[in-house]
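fyi for ur records
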Amino acid sequence: MLSGPKGSEEAPALQCTVCGRESTLVELPGRSEKYCLECSADVATVILLQSEIDAAALAGKHIDGLVAEFTQLSNRLLERAQSA
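which gave:
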């Protein structure tokens, strides 16, 4: 018997950690959360941007463009999470 909602024999639905959509989920390396394809792309990009911002700041380079892109992606993820 599969475990699901109380009294059912259905498998529990898999939901994206960010948006809550029931979808095919993927895991990102080093993360325990599971994401839908759209959210996983944004989360992966945010992770890369964090590294690029840190490296550019340490090198004394201009980071405003990277920070703006990071902010835009973060806001998009936050909107998806809040609408879930």
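Helices lie at 37-58, 64-83. thats all i got for now
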